[in-house]
Every structure is written in structure tokens, then in C-alpha cells.
Design goal:
The complex is a heterodimer of chains A (419) and B (291).
Chain A (H helix, E strand, L loop, with lengths): L4 H10 L7 E4 L2 H10 L5 E5 L10 E2 L8 E4 L2 H11 L3 E3 L8 E2 L3 E5 L5 E10 L4 E7 L6 H7 L4 E7 L3 E2 L1 H10 L4 H21 L1 E12 L2 E4 L2 E5 L8 H12 L7 E2 L2 E5 L4 E6 L1 H13 L6 E5 L5 H12 L6 E8 L5 H14 L6 E7 L2 H11 L4 E3 L2 H13 L11 H12 L2
Helix pairs in contact in A: 2-3, 8-12, 9-10, 10-11
Chain B lengths: L9 E5 L4 H13 L2 E6 L7 E2 L2 E4 L2 H8 L3 E4 L3 H13 L4 E4 L6 H12 L4 E3 L5 E4 L3 E4 L8 E8 L2 H13 L4 E6 L10 H10 L5 E7 L4 H9 L8 E6 L23 H10 L3 E2 L6 H10 L1
Parallel strand pairs in B: 1-2, 1-5, 2-4, 5-6, 6-7, 10-11, 10-12, 12-13, 13-14
Antiparallel strand pairs in B: 3-4, 8-9, 8-11
Classes of the chains: A alpha+beta (419), B alpha/beta (291).
Chain lengths: 419, 291
């Protein structure tokens, strides 16, 4: 789960890390009020979207306006807020549609004598936390680490013993910040490591770190929280719920399953992430266009499978429904066949359905479907299922008449797709 | 022969009294796995599913001579359960638990480094040596004793690959799920090493997916050309959208790295036969063995 800049800065501030004074606003009037409450002679107005590169980005329909702007008066702040709120900001990371700006962050403008950067990331290959430090601020650290490896220092951070103090001191000495600023940077690094551990962060990037009067201050912050840790992070849960209320939450999971909308016309339902990806791969191999990715967890009961099916069938684009389930452990194929029958009885399924069930209770489930859902295609393996689904989506007139037997219909299709 | 587990493996279960654990342990017993006990703090001295229950792992090991522990403890306490098993010097730890906090796994990985334990998972379906030992949640009926080693990041694709090799008349020596989480215990490289030394294994199938760097590390390991058996690989998620997490926590293509194309390229330049379609796993393995 990614936090907005204002949420991240609040988290930093609550944990003794210095940030410029600021507050969030959802209207131009509120933005001006906020500016009036913040000391200083100038302000920054920053669009709050979950994407980096806002300063270099531009608003949809206006190439000139960036997502981060200085303002010399509170009235100026209000004008900027008005031109940002409700519009979409396009950055290098958002794609061409950009992301809608629902809030702006107003903060005191700072004039740092120097900028640095620090980032704490998960290094999956080395199974450790990694501290990235650079004497430059404002550039994407991971990219810079690849392009100019010498400008970024990487230090492993042990969860149990922290970072090697000697290596850290040597690195900071190399930046020649002066005694007081060096000590402040070192303190900031210690606080950042603690914050990552206490709040279960999988990314904390403070970039740039500004040096103002020999003190480090976090000018921008990027925070990702581990979704799996929310059970022990009440404060983050509250932020998450707040984001949900204003409609800016970005999470993959929905009703207990992973659902990703795509552009095609074949709805897919599978149990397990790997088999879901493989199902999409096979569909594309046979020139089919998947309408979505849907991965049900193996402990799903009939009601969850039913709501997944209803979600898929609510898409008006779909021309075929492909279900591929390998029953194993607690996932039994009859759970899936029961859900199909429930959905079909409540609201008869109008698109052709190709179902491939294997593993636990597959025989029983196939028998129930054959008896209970006329016209359903029961495929015996993934290859056959993908081929038939792709074919049905491409030639929808092949749907069987009620008089035609299931067997004959299936044979005809298989004959067709194999030639 | 096989890798990791065989008929001599003596298994305990941490969190044995839970409903999921009970379900799978009953099946493990009927499969013929040597289940020798369970651990549940506060329930020491009782018995469950006909097995003795102990308060902690070290007592269970001392009393039963267990050589492997399977963990069905909820995510909130799974890290502590793994650490307890590491402290007790359990040789093989298999953690089935899903959705563990990733920093818990960073800590576990640090503790594993200088330990006597090996970890599979978390978020793994477990490991199976057909007809000998089944630990975890895999459906036993699709496996068959044979000569193919399977290593996979995904449970359901392990089943698909196993079923296809069974259907092709080949069967498996051992099937290992390394787990779908970004930070996990044993990886492709360690399993490939074990299969290389296993006399029974004639070919190895690696089931990878987008995201992470397991496939790249396997490629680097195999690139010297000293591997003694054919290795085949399928990479799931060839048509996954960019920057979208595909179910598994680690299955995400980030800004131009971790995509299927680069993984396939790395593997194939290391001499691995890349299987293009998930429907052709069985077929490709049979072909590779015939060559």
C-alpha cells in the first residue's frame, strides 16, 4: 500500500523526523487558509497522487502546468490549488490518462544549502533491507544506482544489528557536509531505519533530504507499507480507511480475490496466481483476448466463487467465460461447480462457458455441471480449454441449440479448432 | 532417491490443532508420510489425530526424532514458529502460511544464515516425493513415482506441471514449491543443486513467473554448463500487464525488469530449454528425454 506524500510526511513527523510545515487541502479556499497558517514568505503547492515525477509531470490538456509549483502569496496558493484539483496529472509513471488530483499539499518553501537522498528498500535477492545513500537529491535513486553506480552507496541493514557504523560514517564523511550536518544526517538515517521496522515499510525514500542551517529536513517522502502487516499497524489501517473514503486507495485485492481488469472479451476465473497467469498465457497463445485476471484463493467457499462469477459476468464486453481450476488441498472442484450452478439458476448465464476442472473432486463436479448446466463445455485439459474459449469468443454464432446434444457440440468445436 | 524428503523423513506439525492443519495432516497420514507428532503451546501431553502433542519444537524433536516440521501457524505468529524451529535445529522447515509480513521474513532469513536448518516457503504448497512422503497441501492423486524433478514458485502450476508429466507417462522424483513470497527460504538454485546430485532425477522442470530474480539467479548458476541433466523452464505471466501485481506478492513487473521475455532470454542463454506454452510442459519434457 502506497501512502500519499502528506500521509507519509505526517508519519515521519510523528516519529521525530523533521519535515517542512504543511497541511493537506481539498479546496482552493482551504488551501489559502492553510497557507495563512504556515509561517514563511513563500509556499509550495503539491498535487497528491500516488506517483513519482510530479514536478516534471503536466496536467491533462495543459502541457505547461506541473504538479509541484511555488507560490509567493496565499492567493497564489489558492489559484494553483484551483487549477490542480479535479484534474488529472500525467507523469512518467502514470500512463497517458494520468491520475486525478483530489487533494493538494501546501507547505512552507525551503531553501536548502545542499540536497542529499536516502532510501530503504527490500533487496529480494540478498534477502535483506538495503540502505541507499547519495550526495545528490531529487533524482530517482534506484535508477541512478543502475546508471551511475558510483554516485549511490548501498549498505545492507541487518534487522537484528542495524547498519555497519564504520561503513556508514565513512560514506557520510565522503559527502563533506560539515560536522553538525553529518551528525544530523546520521540521526536521520537511524530514525528512518527504526521507522521502517516499527511501521513495516517495504519502501521509505526521503528524497531530497534538504540541509537547512546544518539540520536535515525531509523535503519529499515516498512510503510503501506492507499490506500483510496491517493486522499489527493500527495507525496505517486508519490511513488506509481514510484513503478509501476519499477514493484514492490502490489495492489489488477485492472481496477476497485478486482481480485485474484487462481489455479482451474472454472472462477468466482460476484458483491460484500461477495457474491464472498460465491460463492467460495459453489464451493469448491461441489468439484469445483475456478480459481480466482473477485469482481465487484456495480456501474460497461457494459464496466467494459466486461473487467472483457475478463480477465477471457483469462485464458487457465478454463473449465467453473460461474457468480453469486445479483442485488441491482444501480447494475442491465441486465448490466451483456448485457456484456455477447457483449463478446460472439465479440469472441464467448467456455467454458460452468453457470449464476445465482437474484434481480434487473433478469427476463429481464435471458430472454435476453436465447434468445441471446445458450447453456448458467441459474441457479435459488446459490446452483444449484455451483453444475452445478462444474459438468461441472469435465466432460466437457457434452456441449450441437446445436440441443439439452436449457431446456432439463439443466434438464439433474440437474438430474445428484442431484443424 | 529423491531430494529433501523420502520415506525416512519424520515429520511434526507446528500448529497441529488448527482446522486447516488437521485437514492436511490427516491426509498426510493416509498418504503414508511418517507423521510423528505435533506442537501446540499449552497442549503438551495431549494427543491429536492419534499423534502426541508437545509444548515446543525442541521437546517434540527430542521425543520423536523428527527431521522435518511443517508449519500451519497463522501469519501473526508464523515467524516465531519458524524461529523456534531454527533454534531447535530442525533440519527441514516447511512453512505453508500465506501473507506473512515481509520484514518478518527478512529477520528469519538472517537467522537462517548461520543455522543448521533449511526452510521451504512461506506460502508454499510444500514438497512431495511420490509414494514416500508428502508434506503440505498438494493433491496426492496427480503425482506418480518417476524421474522428473519439479521446482515451482506457484502451487497450482506445480499441480499442472506434475499432472502433465504424469499424463505423459513420466512421473516425478520430487516436486518442490519454493513459495510465492518475495523473500523465502530455498530457491531455484539450491533445489537445482540437489536435483543435480540426485541419481533418480533425469530432468528438471523449473516453473517460474514474472517478478523477482529467482530465474535470473538460476540462469547464472546454470550458465557454466556443468549441469548434468536437461533443465526445462516455463515462465508464467508472459501477457501480464506492467506494474500490476499478479496475485503473488512477488509477481510484479517493475519498470522494465522481471518480465517474462528477459527471464526466458536469460534461461535460454544458460542452456535451459524454454517451454513457451503452459499446455506443453509434459510434451516438452518427454521430447527432451528422448533427445
Amino acid at each position: 500500500m502506497d501512502l500519499h506524500e502528506y500521509q507519509a510526511k505526517r508519519l515521519l513527523k510523528d516519529n521525530s523526523i523533521r519535515v517542512p510545515e504543511g497541511d493537506v487541502a481539498d479546496s482552493p479556499e482551504r488551501a489559502e487558509q492553510v497557507a495563512n497558517q504556515i509561517p514563511g514568505k513563500s509556499w509550495m503547492v503539491k498535487a497528491q497522487i500516488l506517483s513519482g515525477g510530479r514536478g516534471q509531470g503536466h496536467f491533462k490538456g495543459d502541457e505547461m502546468k506541473s504538479g509541484v509549483r511555488p507560490a509567493a502569496t496565499p492567493e497564489h496558493v489558492s489559484t494553483h490549488a484551483r487549477s490542480m484539483l479535479g484534474r488529472s496529472l500525467i507523469t512518467a509513471q502514470t500512463g497517458q490518462d494520468g491520475l486525478p488530483v483530489r487533494e493538494v499539499y501546501i507547505e512552507q518553501a525551503m531553501d536548502p544549502s545542499q540536497e542529499l537522498s536516502l532510501s530503504l528498500v527490500l533487496d529480494e535477492a540478498n534477502k535483506t533491507l538495503m540502505l541507499l545513500l547519495s550526495a545528490h537529491g531529487g533524482v530517482a535513486m534506484e535508477e541512478m544506482a543502475k546508471k551511475q553506480p558510483l554516485s549511490v552507496t548501498k549498505l545492507p541493514v541487518s534487522i537484528l544489528h542495524g547498519v555497519d557504523q564504520q561503513l556508514l560514517a565513512d560514506t557520510i564523511d565522503g559527502y563533506q557536509l560539515g560536522k553538525k550536518a553529518s551528525a544530523s544526517f546520521k540521526t536521520l538515517i537511524g530514525q528512518a531505519i527504526d521507522l521502517v521496522k516499527i511501521k513495516d515499510l517495504t519502501l521509505l525514500e526521503i528524497n531530497p533530504v534538504g540541509i537547512v542551517n546544518d539540520e536535515c529536513i525531509a523535503l519529499d517522502a515516498k512510503v510503501t507499507v506492507d499490506d500483510n502487516s496491517l493486522f499489527r499497524q493500527a495507525e496505517i489501517r486508519a490511513i488506509d480507511e481514510q484513503s478509501d473514503r476519499i477514493g484514492t486507495r490502490r489495492r489489488a485485492s477485492k472481496d477476497g480475490f485478486n482481480f485485474i481488469q484487462m481489455n479482451g472479451d474472454i472472462a477468466c476465473m482460476t484458483v491460484g496466481a500461477g495457474l491464472s497467469m498460465a491460463t492467460l498465457d495459453s489464451l493469448v497463445q491461441f489468439s484469445g483476448n483475456p478480459a481480466n485476471f482473477l485469482d481465487l484463493p484456495p480456501d474460497s467457499k461457494v459464496n466467494r466463487v459466486t461473487s467472483a462469477l457475478e463480477l465477471l459476468l457483469s462485464n458487457p464486453q465478454i463473449k465467453c467465460l473460461l474457468i480453469n481450476v486445479f483442485g488441491g488441498g482444501i480447494m475442491r472442484c465441486d465448490t466451483v461447480s456448485d457456484a456455477i450452478q447457483v449463478v446460472n439458476r439465479l440469472n441464467p448465464i448467456k455467454v458460452p462457458m468453457v470449464v476445465r476442472l482437474a484434481g480434487t473432486n473433478a469427476k463429481l463436479a464435471n458430472r454435476r455441471l453436465k447434468e445441471g448446466v446445458p450447453g456448458i463445455v467441459l474441457a479435459s485439459n488446459l490446452s483444449e480449454a484455451a483453444k475452445i474459449a478462444a474459438h468461441l469468443a472469435a465466432t460466437p454464432q457457434d452456441v449450441p441449440s437446445a436440441s443439439e446434444s452436449d457431446e456432439g457440440w463439443l466434438k464439433k468445436i474440437i474438430h474445428k479448432v484442431s484443424h | 532417491m529423491s531430494i529433501l524428503v523420502d520415506k525416512s523423513t519424520r515429520v511434526i506439525c507446528q500448529g497441529i490443532t488448527g482446522s486447516q492443519a488437521s485437514f492436511y495432516i490427516e491426509r498426510a497420514i493416509s498418504f503414508g508420510t511418517q507423521m510423528v507428532g505435533g506442537v501446540r503451546p499449552g497442549k503438551g501431553g495431549t494427543s491429536h489425530l492419534g499423534l502426541p502433542v508437545f509444548d515446543d519444537v525442541s521437546t517434540a524433536m527430542a521425543q520423536t526424532g523428527a527431521t522435518a516440521s511443517v508449519i500451519f501457524v497463522p501469519k501473526e505468529n508464523a515467524a516465531n514458529a519458524i524461529i523456534e524451529a531454527i533454534d531447535a535445529e530442525m533440519p527441514l522447515i516447511i512453512c505453508i502460511t500465506e501473507h506473512m509480513p515481509v520484514l518478518d521474513m527478512v529477520k528469519v532469513s538472517e537467522l537462517l544464515k548461520n543455522s543448521r536448518s533449511r526452510l521451504l516457503g512461506p506460502n508454499t504448497p510444500g514438497v512431495i516425493t511420490p509414494e514416500q512422503c508428502r508434506i503440505g497441501i498438494m493433491p496426492a492423486e496427480i503425482f506418480k513415482r518417476g524421474n522428473i524433478g519439479i521446482i515451482s514458485r506457484s502451487s497450482t502450476l506445480t499441480y499442472e506441471a506434475a499432472w502433465q508429466t504424469t499424463d505423459a507417462g513420466l512421473g516425478q522424483s520430487t516436486c518442490v514449491g519454493i513459495g510465492g513470497d518475495p523473500i523465502h527460504g530455498l530457491g531455484f538454485v539450491e533445489c537445482l543443486q540437489m536435483f543435480d546430485e540426485d541419481e533418480e532425477t533425469r530432468a528438471v522442470v523449473v516453473i517460474g513467473e514474472i517478478g523477482g530474480s529467482e530465474e535470473e539467479r538460476a540462469s547464472a548458476y546454470l550458465a557454466n554448463g556443468n549441469y548434468s541433466k536437461p533443465v526445462l523452464a516455463y515462465i508464467a505471466g508472459q501477457h501480464a500487464p506492467l506494474d500490476t501485481r499478479m496475485g503473488h506478492a512477488s509477481a510484479i513487473i517493475k519498470s522494465g525488469s522481471g518480465d517474462a521475455v528477459s527471464k526466458k532470454k536469460a534461461l535460454s542463454s544458460a542452456g535451459v530449454k524454454v517451454i513457451e506454452s503452459p499446455v506443453e510442459i509434459g510434451l516438452c519434457v518427454r521430447k527432451a528425454l528422448a533427445e
